[in-house]
Specification:
Length: 114
């Protein structure tokens, strides 16, 4: 229920008037929604937030999950080889995402039309 508490805290802080003027709206990513009570799920879930579209807002979570693969391979490596492995990992992720972006855009476009 962090978003609920955060919004209440913002409202009572010195930033409260600015936050209200900006019409700031918080969102709890879809994966984390099940941990909240039903009222919070409905109020903060991206499915019920206008303008979010099909996004589940878990892209960062998936990216960090992929970086866990580095732990076993770099644990015993020298500092140089550890940094080399980390850099190669992220370079591959960049290339892989770039290669898949065309299909991603096309599939989202098709889904938006239906």
């Amino acid at each position: 229920d962090i978003m609920c508490a955060f919004v209440k805290m913002l409202g009572t802080s010195a930033l409260g008037p600015r936050v209200a003027a900006m019409n700031l709206q918080g969102i709890v990513p879809a994966f984390h929604g099940h941990a909240h009570n039903r009222l919070c799920q409905v109020h903060w879930h991206p499915l019920y937030t206008e303008g979010v579209g099909l996004e589940d807002l878990e892209g960062c979570e998936r990216t960090f999950h992929k970086s866990n693969e580095l732990a076993s391979g770099t644990r015993l490596a020298t500092p140089f080889h550890r940094m080399q492995e980390i850099e190669e990992h992220w370079n591959f992720i960049d290339i892989d995402k770039h290669a898949a972006s065309g299909n991603f855009i096309y599939q989202n476009y098709r889904q938006a039309l239906t």
